[in-house]
Design brief:
By secondary structure, the protein is an alpha/beta fold. The protein is built from ten helices and twelve strands. Bound molecules: NADP nicotinamide-adenine-dinucleotide phosphate (NAP). NADP nicotinamide-adenine-dinucleotide phosphate binds near residues 62, 63 and 152.
Length: about 290
Amino acid sequence: MKILVTGKNGQLGKSIHKLVANTEQTDDFVFVGREELDLSNENNIARYFENNVFDTIINCAAYTAVDKAEEEEVLANKINHLAAAQLSQIAKNQQAKLIHISTDYVFDGESDNPYTETDVTNPINVYGKTKLTGEKAIQEAMPTDATIIRTSWVYSEYGNNFVNTMLRLSKERDELSVVSDQIGSPTYATDLANAILDIVQNKTFKEAGQETQIYHYSNAGEISWHEFAKEIFKMADIQCSVSPITAEQYPTPARRPMNTIMDKNKITKAFSVDTPDWKESLNTCMTILKEQQ
Ligand SMILES: NC(=O)c1ccc[n+]([C@@H]2O[C@H](COP(=O)([O-])OP(=O)(O)OC[C@H]3O[C@@H](n4cnc5c(N)ncnc54)[C@H](OP(=O)(O)O)[C@@H]3O)[C@@H](O)[C@H]2O)c1
């Protein structure tokens, strides 16, 4: 097995790397960042795969700056849509499987029920639009052998994410205002990484010619950003008061969907992956962050 993981310096890429490092699987994996494979450059992508052939490509790289995407639509589209399309063509030509990560932001967040994989998509910002066109391009190029996993509110020990931002801000201020009317489910990147590794090992996944599928994955439980922030400070034993505000009181360049809770039955049934409760996983991440201090 030869497995490529893109986005090696991102949250998910690093989390997969940590899980496979020092295991018997480690030699199966190749991790690349933009230095080796620049997904904004069509020629660079084509050249890379002339010399490198894989059984599975796990695409963890993406343009993830949600607000900046509003003014960098061309670049976001190149990485989230055109590169995804090109990777799926390459995967097809190499008879490789493709695992691609997408987002809850393909939905408009107006539903009162958890989103299932067949619910109507309607992204309300540029990032969501480029991720959705990426999904569609993959489905078109690869009617079989691709797996698209939509996830939400990803955090980890690495890089920029809500947990790290809250911890940083709490050092600068005694009081914070955090949005309380946007609801979703956090995803600890290590849990998603574990789920992806379970899928890669799955007997059915390995069979060629399986119909391309979309799956939803996040931790279990539903919260607002405000509840998330309060729990982070509680676990870190930080005295920072958190006031609830509405999304309207906290305008951002990109609009965010109000409710993106996702139904995870399909992925848990298909692959028996674990979806730990959000508090349990937050605790794991906070413990690691404390140890690193
Ligand atoms: N973060 C979230 O809250 C969230 C929510 C829902 C879905 N997702 C999806 O989950 C996946 C993983 O997200 P993440 O949180 O791990 O993202 P991340 O930490 O922002 O990592 C994304 C990686 O993509 C790389 N990248 C960006 N432009 C590139 C280019 N032109 N060529 C090659 N690599 C490039 C970045 O490289 P550099 O390190 O060099 O910048 C970065 O390492 C993505 O598909 C994302 O859309 C994320």
